[in-house]
User: Fold this.
Amino acid sequence: GVTIFFNFDECAIGIGEKPSDLHGTIVVQPNPNNGNFEISILETIENLEINIYNTNGELVFQEYYDGYRYAGRKIKIDSDFKPGVYFVQFKSGADILVTKIIVFGR
Assistant:
């Protein structure tokens, strides 16, 4: 048989990637985590959309925050995600940032 290996650090799995003004503005911690984590907003962001995808490219979480999210705000995510790798996509206007998280279970 043939074995194919994927390096997910180098591919987007259907999520658009480009240099983003959001880089350094949003921090996800802890990472790795048990499915419960916090998103810290370090600068003012307008109309933030958060999408979380599994490695199959399936949308497993989506939330939209209308208006301004001010610096210092924290968004708590309590999920029942199965152990694995997830891609957290942040959108604000035309800016997109994708961050990888690892869920290790409870």
